[in-house]
Design brief:
The protein has 430 residues and is α+β, with helices and mostly antiparallel strands. The protein is built from 17 helices and eleven strands. The strands form two sheets. It has a seven-stranded mixed beta sheet with strand order 3-2-1-4-7-6-5, sandwiched between helices. A four-stranded mixed beta sheet has the order 8-11-10-9. Strand 9, helix 14 and strand 10 form a beta-alpha-beta unit. It is globular and about 70 Å long.
Length: 430
C-alpha cells in the first residue's frame, strides 16, 4: 500500500477550508479522511473514523470527529462535527457509562446541536493525546487480527510501535481499556485492536495518514512473508444465474417476510469469492462469524448456503434451517443479557452459492450493494486468514452483543416477533 498524499491536492483543501472560515487543520483532516475512505482496502461503509483536535478562537479545546451518516470518501466539514474536548476527557475517570449516557454526553458536547451523532469511538479519539487520529478496518490487518494468539506476532512485526489491545466491544469499555493500554505504552504510534482493526495517531494529518499506510503495508508484508497472496479488489466476472436468482427472490418475498414488499439481490462472483465458496470446509468457516464486528449489523452473523442448482424446495429448506439456527443462537445468548432482548428477523442477508458466488440481500438497492461490498472484502480477508493460519473472529457471545447492542434494541418497536420487527440500524461505527 502506498501513500496517495499530494501536496497540490492538500493545498486545495486548505484553501477551501479557509474560504469557509475553517482551520487549516480541518481542511487537511478532510483531505486525508477522503484518501482513507476512497480506498476499499482501508475502510468500507462506516468501518472507520478520523478526528482532529483544534482550538477555537476563544482558546477552547475542540475535537472534530466523524459523524454518523457520513462516508469518509465524500466527507465534508459538517461530517466532522466539533465537540468540546474537556467533558469527554472527564469521562476517563467515570467508573461506568451506559451506552445511552455515552450518547447523551457526546451530544451534549457538540458545538452545533443539530450536528450528526459523533462516532461511538469519540471517547477513544479524545483520550489519545495527539491532534490527529485515524481508525481503519484494512483488509490485510483483518487477515492477521482474526488469528488466535497474535500478541507475540504483532510485537515481532511492529515492535513497540503498536500497542496490542485484546478484544473489547466498541464504545465506552473499549475507550477505557485502550486508553489504559496506551498510557502504559505511551511511546507507541498506534493501537492494534484484536479482531477489530487499527489506530494510528500523530500531531498532523499527513503523519497520521502515512503511519496508517505504513502499518497496513507491514501487515501485507507479513502475509507475503508467510507465502500468502492478498489480492486487491477484483473484477466481478462471474455470470449470475437468473433462474436461481428468481427462485431465491420468490422464497424471500413470502408473506410476513421483511422482504414481502420487495427484495434486492446484489450478486458478486470474484476470483476470491469463488475460492472461498469452493473450499470443502466453507460452511464451517462461514459459521465462525464476520471479519470485523460491525459487519454483523449489515449482514447477520453468518450466510445461508445453497448449491448452484438449488430448486425451490431446496431454497425453502435452507431458509427454514437458517431460521432455526438463528433462533437457537438468539435463545442461547439472550438469557445472559442484562436487559430484555427482542429477536430480529430470522432471514439471511447473504446467500453463498457453492463454487459460484454470493448474493447480498437488501430491502433496497443500496443495502444490497453495501452487503455485496462487504462480502467481497470478507472473502479476500478470510482466504488470506485461512492461508496464514486459521480464520478466528470474535466468538458467538461477542458477536451477539454487537448485533443486539442496546443502542440497536432501544429503537425496535414493542413486540416480540421472529419476522415482523422493523430493523432500525444506525451506522454505529461511523
Amino acid at each position: 500500500m502506498e501513500s496517495r498524499w499530494n501536496d497540490e491536492d492538500a493545498a486545495r483543501f486548505v484553501e477551501a477550508a479557509r474560504a469557509e472560515g475553517q482551520s487549516e487543520a480541518l481542511g487537511l483532516r478532510i483531505y486525508t479522511s477522503r484518501l482513507i475512505g476512497s480506498d476499499p482496502d482501508l475502510v468500507l461503509h462506516g468501518g472507520g473514523n478520523t478526528s482532529v483536535k483544534v482550538r477555537s478562537d476563544e482558546g477552547e479545546q475542540l475535537m472534530h470527529i466523524k459523524g454518523s451518516g457520513w462516508d469518509l470518501d465524500t466527507i465534508e466539514a459538517p461530517g466532522l462535527p466539533a465537540v468540546r474536548l474537556a467533558p469527554l476527557l472527564e469521562a476517563r475517570n467515570t467508573p461506568k457509562l451506559s451506552d445511552p449516557d455515552m450518547v447523551l454526553l457526546l451530544r451534549a458536547s457538540l458545538i452545533e446541536k443539530d450536528a450528526p451523532n459523533p462516532s461511538v469511538e469519540a471517547l477513544l479519539h479524545a483520550f489519545i493525546p495527539f491532534d490527529c487520529v485515524d481508525h481503519t478496518h484494512a483488509t490485510a490487518v483483518l487477515a492477521l487480527a482474526d488469528q488466535p494468539n497474535m500478541r507475540d506476532a504483532i510485537r515481532r512485526i511492529y515492535g513497540d510501535r503498536l500497542a496490542y489491545v485484546p478484544y473489547v466491544m466498541p464504545g465506552f469499555d473499549l475507550s477505557i481499556a485502550a486508553d489504559r493500554i496506551y498510557r502504559s505504552h505511551s511511546d507507541c504510534e498506534g493501537l492494534w485492536l484484536e479482531n477489530h482493526g487499527l489506530f494510528s495517531f500523530a500531531n498532523d494529518a499527513r503523519a497520521s495518514y502515512e503511519l496508517m499506510i505504513e502499518f497496513v503495508t507491514l501487515a501485507e508484508q507479513e502475509l507475503a512473508r508467510a507465502g500468502v497472496a492478498l489480492s486487491g479488489p477484483q473484477p466481478n466476472d462471474g455470470e449470475r444465474d437468473a433462474a436461481l436468482a428468481a427462485r431465491l427472490e420468490k422464497a424471500l418475498m413470502r408473506e410476513r417476510s421483511p422482504f414481502a414488499k420487495g427484495v434486492f439481490l446484489d450478486y458478486r462472483s470474484t476470483e476470491a469469492i469463488r475460492e472461498l465458496t469452493s473450499k470443502p470446509n466453507v460452511e464451517t468457516i462461514s459459521l465462525r462469524g464476520t471479519v470485523t464486528p460491525d459487519h454483523v449489523i449489515r449482514i447477520k452473523p453468518w450466510p445461508m448456503i445453497i448449491g448452484a442448482d438449488a430448486d425451490e424446495p431446496a431454497i425453502e429448506s435452507a431458509l427454514a434451517a437458517y431460521a432455526d439456527r438463528y433462533r437457537a443462537y438468539f435463545e442461547r445468548n439472550a438469557t445472559r443479557a442484562n436487559e430484555q432482548k427482542r429477536i430480529l428477523d430470522v432471514y439471511p442477508r447473504v446467500v453463498l452459492v457453492l463454487g459460484k458466488g454470493m448474493f447480498a440481500i437488501g430491502a433496497n438497492a443500496k443495502a444490497a450493494k453495501i452487503g455485496g461490498d462487504l462480502c467481497e472484502q470478507a472473502a479476500r480477508a478470510i482466504n488470506a486468514a485461512e492461508a496464514y493460519g486459521c480464520f478466528t473472529p470474535i466468538g458467538e457471545a461477542d458477536l451477539f452483543d454487537m448485533e443486539y447492542w442496546s443502542l440497536e434494541q432501544a429503537k425496535l418497536k414493542i413486540g416480540y416477533s421472529d419476522v415482523a420487527a422493523p430493523i432500525f440500524r444506525p451506522n454505529w461505527h461511523d
